[in-house]
Design goal:
The structure is a single chain. The chain has one domain: Protocatechuate 3,4-Dioxygenase, subunit A (Sandwich), CATH 2.60.130.10. The radius of gyration is 17 Å and the shape is globular. By secondary structure, the protein is mostly beta strands. It binds fe (iii) ion. Fe (iii) ion binds next to strand 5.
């Protein structure tokens, strides 16, 4: 096993390591902790929940920004706020380069509709940016966005390595009826969503040119 394969395997296992917690449905700490490195075996591929990041992977697909982006969102990993109604959702994952290296400090700017499918175009409700940690990990606490006319359920995001190019895209939910009719829906941007328990947990790894 060469070094690159080892790194890829490590990333697979990083994802796998979150599974027992997710299936347990009782832990609040669902960040990918990177403890997979402690797994001496590292050969059990049956539980891999997301596709492995292969060296030379294509970058995450770009999508239109849409009409509701507001620059200069507050820096925060939780966009939850008092009085905000909806089903709690945690989106987490890792920001990777096309060589499968974590991109520490990558900026992620999220914006989305509320549970009624409406954007806050005056303030910054359900808008916020954050920076990936030293292992490229991010975690967004939010609610499941509502749908609005013409669009399936989605979350907008801009992702940017430090001093790198901005990737603008959208994240989607599996099993949505609107996925079949939304003209710009792209299955490559569907999150891995766990619906067990009262809180939805979604996972998506970004691959950026860096
Ligand atoms: Fe939108």
């Amino acid at each position: 096993m060469d070094e690159r394969l080892s790194r890829r395997r490590f990333l697979e296992l990083s994802a796998t390591a979150t599974i027992p917690i997710v299936l347990g449905g009782c832990g609040e700490q669902d960040e990918p902790t990177g403890t997979a490195g402690e797994d001496p075996g590292g050969t059990d591929r049956r539980l891999a929940p997301t596709p492995a990041c292969d060296d030379g992977d294509e970058p995450t697909v770009e999508q239109t920004e849409g009409p509701f982006f507001t620059p200069s969102s507050p820096e925060r990993s939780s966009v939850l706020a008092p009085g905000l109604e909806g089903v709690a959702l945690v989106v987490s994952g890792t920001v990777l380069s096309t060589a499968c290296e974590p991109i520490a400090g990558a900026m992620l700017d999220f914006w989305q509709a509320n549970a009624s499918g409406e954007y806050d175009n005056v303030g910054f409700t359900l808008r916020g940016h954050q920076f990936a940690d030293s292992k490229g990990r991010y975690r967004l606490e939010t609610i499941v966005p509502g749908v609005y006319t013409g669009r399936t359920r989605h979350i907008h995001v801009k992702a940017q390595p430090e001093d790198g190019t901005v990737l603008t895209t959208q994240l989607y939910f599996p099993g949505e009826p609107g996925n079949d009719t939304d003209a710009i829906f792209d299955p490559r941007l569907v999150m891995d969503v766990d619906t067990a328990g009262s809180k939805r947990r979604a996972r998506f790894d970004f691959v950026l040119e860096a």
